[in-house]
């Protein structure tokens, strides 16, 4: 017997053995309804809302309609055959680990997310996860997954209501209480953030001053024209800087590749250009001092490099262009030799 049940709330309805052939169940809410033994052949189910607790045990159903247009059901399914026994139930029953919450009218997904977050915080054993939200005409359906055997729609609805229950009006709906709560939480959070912002600014000022003080204490002289802070070499004017390891690699390459004079000039040119472009050392005098200090620093840290310098001094000097650069490197190597035990 066909019935017009458009927008009907059949939640938990006892429809066992009912003859619903040809009924229009458009946007009907049938969560936790019991259709055991009912005849559902020819029903129109556009945008209806079932749940994991909706019972389809032993239902009879040859086919359904999935659309309702111009006052008539349409989009027959299956198209050219009837359902096999049990096929309808297997296709349209919701997974056991997923429930649907249905909201009418205005819907705020941010409020729902906050509500579920609070509920999960208060009841972590539910292990809730918002899987998605879809709109069905004037309804909003939120699909929620849980690996907990405790999950059911009634429990979630009750918990959401208890989290946001307004004592001044016991009849307030779940969606209204959720929507109202988002604004209360927003105001409370905004107030806390305003207080925290002031504290953060105060702490940032103290921390900033301390950081500057520590930075000054960590400065180490690096010759007459540079200093090192952490792993960075900076000139005294503070106008340019370079990473220590980057510069040290180039200077070591310059020295250790002296066996191939063709590599020396390009390496020197590249290093001088970098020092100039990064405004670390822009004059020939400061550039030579920079190389000297790196040779000394690397020799002090690396015994193998120190031995290489002393053993290959003549070869290294002869590979350098005659003049200031050769003199500077020779002076650095002699300083290393003077510190040998």
What class would the helix/strand composition place it in? alpha+beta
Number of strands: 9
Relative strand content: 5-15%
Rough shape? rod-shaped
Integer tally of domains: 3
- Uncertain regions spanning at least 5 consecutive residues: 163-172
Offer a quick outline of the entry:
The chain has helices at 87-92, 109-122, 153-164, 174-218, 244-256, 261-277, 284-301, 303-311, 313-319, 324-338, and strands at 64-69, 72-77, 98-104, 128-136, 139-146, 220-222, 226-229, 232-235, 241-243.
Can you tell me about this structure?
With about 350 residues, the protein is an alpha+beta fold. It folds into 3 domains: about 1-95, Pectate Lyase C-like; about 100-185, Gyrase A, domain 2; about 225-340. Helix content is about 45%, strand content about 15%. The chain contains 10 helices and 9 strands. The chain has helices at about 85-90, 110-120, 155-165, 175-220, 245-255, 260-275, 285-300, 305-310, 315-320, 325-340, and strands at about 65-70, 70-75, 100-105, 130-135, 140-145, 220, 225-230, 230-235, 240-245. The strands form 3 sheets. It has a 4-stranded antiparallel β-sheet. The longest helix is centred in the middle third of the chain and has 45 residues, at about 175-220. It is rod-shaped and about 110 Å long. Residues about 165-170 have low confidence and may be disordered.
Secondary-structure map with pairings?
Blueprint: E1 64-69, E2 72-77, H1 87-92, E3 98-104, H2 109-122, E4 128-136, E5 139-146, H3 153-164, H4 174-218, E6 220-222, E7 226-229, E8 232-235, E9 241-243, H5 244-256, H6 261-277, H7 284-301, H8 303-311, H9 313-319, H10 324-338
Antiparallel strand pairs: 1-2, 3-5, 4-5, 6-7, 7-8, 8-9
Helix pairs in contact: 2-3, 2-4, 3-4, 5-6, 5-7, 7-8, 7-10, 9-10
